Amino acid sequence: MNQPTLRSTARCFAISLCVAATAFLGGCVENAKSIRDAQAEFSRAAQIEDRTLLGAEQGVQASTEAATNYRMAATTLQKLIAEKSGDLKKDNLLCTAMSIEALSRWRLGDYDAAMQIANNSSNCSDAPAGSQPARDLALFQALPGLIRIDQANQKLAKPAQTIAQFDEVMTLLSDANTILQTARSQIDPAQPLQLYLIQSQLAVVRNWQYAILREGLTGNLNGCETGQASQQAIRLLAELACASLAVPGQQGTQDIKSLILYWQFITGGVSLANPPPVLTSIPDQINQENCSNLNVKGGFPDTCQRPQ
């Protein structure tokens, strides 16, 4: 039950989001450069955290350095937005700048500031409805779900107590899954953000499984919760495989195979009996036929009966 690895994975995909966001920036060269510089600070911070988890950096010093980089990204963009929001909006850069600042605030644990940015994001573009930057807007919509995953982690770090504490964690995780699923519905199937959001939902499952162990559930409740979490894992693994068909450059690649096998391993999905055809031979069985006939029951809502 390696929670640091889970958080590390989330950071890696957040880096990919930022890279995608800044790869094709247009508009004012100076403003675009400022956004790219902030993205670079964000990426450096995440890489430092990852090296720390792998034992390649000293914990306290690296944590301080990572926080400094995140803060630099956030303050750079906060200043840029405050001074040049009109120009950024005209050049269609405001949503991107706000999304990277929000991610930086999230990684710093400043959830209120991250949510304030997300709540103000509805006016970040003047583009007509339907042509606004869907990736950024979906990311803003997903942010409360990502925060709830962190909050569940924080509760799980406390000493194990009661079924009531488990239920508090499950409320956060269920809300997170719903929020992330809603965000997925707002973007095109070919949007790379789909892959990130599905993996965020898999992080929900991983926390669910950790909560079962951490709270020491026993008997029928343990069996029911374990079974439903496993069912949710296999559904999301299948959706991750099928989502790769639509995302340019991902179909049938070794990267997507490694990604699915990684999540299979840490969620226990690899041990499930009778997986759907799309997961029987990866990536060979990831095809349109298997995905069009995908019918895998999920694990939410949690319907397990609590002891009276």
Summarize the structure in short:
70% of the residues lie in helices and 0% in strands.
Q: What does the largest sheet look like?
A: none
Number of strands: 0
- Count of individual domains: 2
Unreliable stretches (pLDDT < 50, length at least 5) are: 1-16
Helices and strands, in N-to-C order? HHHHHHHHHHH
Return the average pLDDT rounded to an integer: 83
Rg is 20 Å
Hey, roughly how much beta strand do the residues contain? under 5%
Structural class: mainly alpha
Fraction of residues in helices? Answer: 55-70%
User: Helical region count?
Assistant: 11
**Backbone shape:** globular
N→C terminal distance: 29 Å
Structural notes for this entry:
- The radius of gyration is 20 Å and the shape is globular.
- The chain has two domains: 3-132, no CATH class; 135-292.
- It has 308 residues and is mainly alpha-helical.
- Mean pLDDT is 83; it is low at 1-16.
- It has helices spanning 3-22, 29-53, 59-90, 94-107, 111-119, 134-156, 163-185, 193-214, 219-246, 254-267, 288-292.
